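Q: My labmate handed me this sequence with no annotations at all. I'd like to see what the chain might look like in three dimensions before we decide whether it's worth expressing. Could you predict it?
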Amino acid sequence: MPIKTYNPTTPTLRWKAISDFSELFPKGKRPEGSLIEAKRRNGGRNNTGRVTARRRGHGHKRYYRIIDFRRNRTDAPAVVKAVEYDPNRSARIALVEYPDKELRYILAPHGIKEGDKVQSGSGIEPALGNCMPIREIPAGTFIHNIELYQGRGGQMARSAGAYAIVMAKDGEMAHLKMPSGEIRLIHLNCVATVGQVGNIEHENESWGKAGRSRWLGWRPASRAVAKNPVDHPMGGGEGKSSGGRQACNRWGLLAKGLHTRKKSKRSNRYIVQRRQK
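A: Here is what I predict for the chain of 277 residues:
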């Protein structure tokens, strides 16, 4: 998937670099009507109307694509009918069809194409796009859409270009190297999909202008040191200042270097090695 750049005839185009969407097929296909639902926007507010996530709001309307993260249909293989754009995630999605004409969306692995067959279950070949228990996946294999708990569906390694590596197997647990570099224990009965998530050039995209952020629902953010003391602890000062205190958020919580993970978190015992600093 190449990145498309532009001749800088305007200030916007000078830094613009976006996907050329060459991996999508067929071109201009609308999403499957039975697999979409309305996505209601809340502008970063909770059920009482209070802002809980700042700098969110507006943006283009979207339909949510219902993705099969569980991959729990194990009776027959499915055929890839299309690879589509999903506005709700960085990865591409693939429309697959089962022999009884049932349609589902799955995360599209890198290299999948129209007509390929994908399958789920135990006792199948660890081929691209197949979903199976980690117990049956050879060491050194790239995997994505990994379950944390059996039957809950994939929760890890789902963004564009993400993958984990099966390092080793010890007893009933597998050692997985996560995209962050963390080595984590996952039960061998949890399922994962073979391959790397597609759209691997996503990290090289550059939106080029502030307006594109607004289309995606991101509102402007002011720097803390540019505010007044009444609005932020790092505000104020005569002329430009570097803040005058350690970086923090508007409520005084340290923003750099403070460990926010609970030391008593139950899943800490499953982390063999922390991610590299």
